[in-house]
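Cross-check.
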Amino acid sequence: MAHYNVQSDNPNWEDGLSIVNGYVHVLSPDHHRANYNGYVRQHILIAERALGKPLPKDAVGHHINGKKAENDNTNLVLCENNNYHKLLHKRERAKKACGHANYEKCCYCHKYDDPKSMSIFYRKQNKFIHKSCNTERCRIYRKKGGGYHSSS
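Predicted model, tokenized:
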């Protein structure tokens, strides 16, 4: 990889803008969230301008339409932390797959369903399973001679 001493000598130089992994980065070396090259993701700067103050340390920007380079105010949602950001993506996948943002995906058959008709399979990871899928899973496990050990 070539190293450049002067930014304007770099063939990717776009007057302080750079695109990395789909995100637009802006040259702002004095910004508290600048990376080692002095760049900050553009959506962070836009969110801070809209708020009128720096973003909280754990805040994450979410692009509503999924296009990381589209940073207008109408396409950004500010998430308090990465866990909330992951929840938004999980709900978007459910909505796209079955039309219901609150539905959960069965970890056995991979179909979405109302969580009320499912059991929690693995609480730490918040995984759900249909009762019929769990019965089938246990039947196959026993048939293979694995026995059954309940998890708590």
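The helical segments are 42-51, 82-98, 131-143. Residues 82-98 form the longest helix (17 residues). Passed to J.P. for a second look.
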